[in-house]
Amino acid sequence: MAMRILGLIFFIALATGIATSDGNAQQRQVPETRAQVQLSYAPLVEKAAPAVVNIYTQKIVANRQVPPLFDDPFFRRFFGDLGFRFNRGGPRREQQNSLGSGVIVSPEGLVVTNQHVIEGADKIIVVLADKREFEAQIVVSDDKTDLSVLRVDPGGEPLPALEIRDSDELKVGDLVLAIGNPFGVGQTVTSGIVSALARAIGNDTELKSFIQTDAAINPGNSGGALLSMDGKLVGINTSIFSKSGGSHGIGFAVPSNMVRAVVYGISENGKLVRPWLGAIGQAVTSDIALSLGMKRPQGVIVSQVHKSGSAALGGLRAGDVVLAVNGHEIAGTEDLQYRVATLPVGDRAVLRVMRGQNVLPITVEMQPAPDTPEPDTTELEGRNPLSGSVVANLSPALAEEYNIDPFGDGVVILRIRRGGIANRLDFRPGDIVRQINGIGVPSVTKLEEIVRDEAKAEWRIRVERAGQTFDFVFKG
Q1: What are the φ and ψ backbone dihedral angles of 195, each rounded to 5 degrees?
Q2: How far apart are CA 379 and CA 377, in angstroms?
Q3: Which of 26, 328, 428, 459 could bridge 17 with an S-S bond, Cβ 3.0-4.6 Å?
Q4: What predicted TM-score, i.e. pTM, was given to this entire model?
Q5: CA distances, 350 to each of 141, 235, 314, 365, 369 (Å)
Q6: Domains of the chain: residue spans and CATH
Q7: Phi-psi region of 385 (alpha: psi -120 to 50; beta: other; left: phi over 0)
Q8: How many other CB atoms sit within 10 Å of the CB of residue 276?
Q9: Annotated catalytic sites, by residue?
């Protein structure tokens, strides 16, 4: 019995790397096989952690120090502006601080984080694991993916950076590590597995295809790294599913293929350029599959194809069912949007399409949304309800930028000058002006012609906003 116990102890010592021939601890290495990972995550963390940074943001906000009682109209009838005398210096300006995480993806100083981590910040500080601090500038911020790319100046010294891995190689059940700065306690590592792929959750982003993991992700982890067992970046930790604000084993990360598309999609003028398919449709349901003679529901049935989009130029038609993109099966519209968005501009994609009873390949050259017609950007002036608004002819490029229907036409409001008439009347950027007094508005030129006549007793303006139609009536 004693011999069996001694043999078991010796076996455990060999398996854990505690005992070696010379009695010294076995030298740790970056794990290269799944078996080696069972020994320790430490070599992997030592390799990757220097490229994961803490991000601190500062924002100055105006805070009116007036007792709420004096804002009540009833009390102001008796006390007038007495409450405002407590705040004669005007609104009190306060500094708000927040924190998150980020990942260095280029030795020259490119850092990726979540957009919501740095949104509205007046100052962004990036702190490395070795305590060096850099002030960061925003290169691009993308609300469709909740990703932002920052740049810091390391003074010519290369920074530690993580290599981006192909996230399509991930499988459910793969081991992953999450590194970030939860609750501001400092850099922390948690482990788990990939519990699901291609999850479409939430309404804050348009491109939804998240990696789901049970590696603990908490407030402050946002923007941090999700690592595979070879120490490469497979995702950017983004959100958690929780009612209490703490981790309950369901966290979500933006796949690294989307991260790569954002980083390498930045143009020379600093704008993010992504490919545009120029086709929309709906997921094939059981009823649609039955009517089409399909064995199972799969893919997206195309309802509209823009004449200037990549899809039309490649030969895709309304009624086609897109089954796969570059060999990746398409389950629904989110899948299709994700696959297109992760392709480089100028790349060729092979779509497997069912047309009638035939399945055929269609090769599509991925191009950005066309900027036609010419925007003809104009600021409206004069005594009319739209005065002070900057308008432009609607094109697919503008529609993509403002998340509006790219298949329509007309005039879109880009900006509204503060204090202008349009600002006071609650018009908003992204509004599409459809009609004025029953007259259609197909172009900026036509809109200028209509508002030039200021002697109107009444203005009836029809606007499309977020897919809904609103009619505004103003007296002249």
Answers
A1: -100, -15
A2: 7
A3: 26
A4: 0.79
A5: 29, 25, 10, 9, 19
A6: 53-101+115-140 (no CATH), 279-365 (2.30.42.10), 378-475 (2.30.42.10)
A7: alpha
A8: 24
A9: 116, 146, 222
